[in-house]
Amino acid sequence: MSSENAGFDPARIRALIARGKLKDALFSALGILCLGIGLLVIFALVADMAVKGAERFNLGFFLNFASRRATQAGILSAWVGSLLVMLVTAMTAVPLGVAAGLYLEEYARRNWITEVIEINITNLAAVPSIVYGLLALGIFVYAFGFGQSILSAGLTLALLILPIVIVATREAIRAIPAMIREGSMAVGATRWQTCRYHIVPYAMPGILTGVIIGLARAIGETAPIITIGALTFIAFLPPVPFSELADGTRAGLFDWVMSPFTVMPIQIFNWTSRPDPAFEVNAAAAGFVLMVMVLTMNAIAIWLRYRLRKNIKW
Amino acid sequence: MLKQTRLTVALGLAGLSMLAAGTAQAQVIKIDGSSTVYPITEAVAEEFQKAKKNAIKVTVGISGTGGGFKKFCRGETDFSNASRPITAKEMEECKAAGVEYIEMPVAFDALTVVINPKNAFLKQATVEELKKMWEPAAQGTVTKWNQVNPAWPDAPIKLFGAGADSGTFEYFTEAVVGKAKSSRGDYTASEDDNVLVQGVSRDVNAIGYFGYAYYAENTAKLKALPIVNPKTGKVVEPSAVNVENGTYQPLSRPIFVYVKAASLQKPEVKEFVDFYMKNATALIKEVKYVPLPAAAYTGNLDHVTKKKLGTVFGGKNEVGVTIEDLMKREAQM
After folding, report:
1. pTM (2 decimals)?
2. Closest residue on chain A to B62 (Cα)
3. Nearby residues of B223 by Cβ (< 8 Å), 6 or more positions away
4. What's the gap in Å between the CA of B148 and the closest CA on chain A?
5. Which of A47, A91, A308, B332 is deepest in the core (most CB within 10 A)?
């Protein structure tokens, strides 16, 4: 204390400021370096896969089923399977997760039960995915009798990303200023009306971010999907709603959810572990496609977030 | 408003999809099991679907031999791929569930011991030498080539082998060490044989083992080690010819497909079996496995017609059996 107050020495203060600025510059350089490493790794990975798989990028690759001949093998059943599983996952996890998050933030009383629930939700996010697979095998596949279907897989992955969606929802709701809530209630809105017309719309950008992070994780999951019994070789697609089936009847609107399936990560894994090295090219190409799928999902999320934020006027 | 409607729709769809759970599935031939047998069955399934113009659907999964039998004995699958015969415990499970089956050997898998192509001193090996390298007692003590054979150099030995869950590991340990699943633990283990291929091809002092197909696809990067047949004393190279004539022993084994007897009532399953046995030789060669003598496939079809239920192994794995021998044996449930 005393030494700092002792003398007002401009030279010393200037030196102090210079030192601070140097640290500033050093830290920003370090930050750029860290960012660069991260970007470089992902860029190298994507570029490597794109170059290795380049010779497979043609229409046939997307429209062919798996085959023992590398040049004829495609990812049709895998990409369709991945998309349909994601659809079921999103349709289950989003309503459940948003409703649960909304309840915890807006309705639930603060007591030890909600505390326990909160701790549990946070912990669930850290449970290894294979555990969800084992749980789903017992419950969805056998107890509920859904079998090795798109429905089972979608519900399994929905469970997996539910904690992510709930936490994201709660964070987004918490970021809404209290005055919005108070204002709404002050003019006589009920709690439900407040949630419906204010809280959920304003929280939507944040919720969407959480949903996309969750789905991006789910689309790359292999372990729980293998556990519930996804296939490796499947050379047909789930029935299109209302299309004619082999036995002359028409498929129902939701028949596809009970169809056997495979997903992109399983197809990639199978190709990397085959004896014939030509399949490595397929694996690289499929890996690149999976990356593009994830990046597209992220891009859509950013675009939606941007659009929704434009409408929020506080 | 709009968002709310969307949410309601999503909830409704989720509910409806639950309702759809009870609807019947289309007729599908279901196959699951070993990853070793997978390439063969996949090739057959692919050709079968093509021949039937996709009127019959076939699915093939990879759950491993044990995982495959679990589903098979619960009655969930029509066929089970197996890289070893059914065990006594699995026989019990099938019996308890009332699942009867017919055992069909479909091909040979030759475990191939491979070394780096730059390895100049290793021309052959005996089963005893392999045992010295791989037995549990070797753990931590046998680390140099000259400890196995004094004629070999004083250089570190780098071991690459199958992971403990694979049928390959089970058979190799049984054939070399004498007891299934008994192996040293301090080696590079991987369930993915391509990892082993990479490892051996990069290290001049490496030695490893895996299925013949992985060697056959990577002959430029690897050298196969001829093994002395303990019965005849002759040095035998792993090759299609030597596997087929039964001299590459004890490291070649038959691999199987089990079919559920009840499924054979369905015409499409019967057709699939016929197709499998008639096209096996050509397709198996194409996926770099070694086909059985032609008599074995007609024998399998004969067993299917006569309903020869059960296994000829009595729940135990065996080293060094010949196909002719297997075909003659009595099966039991």
Report:
1. 0.82
2. A232
3. B114, B115, B116, B117, B119
4. 30
5. A91
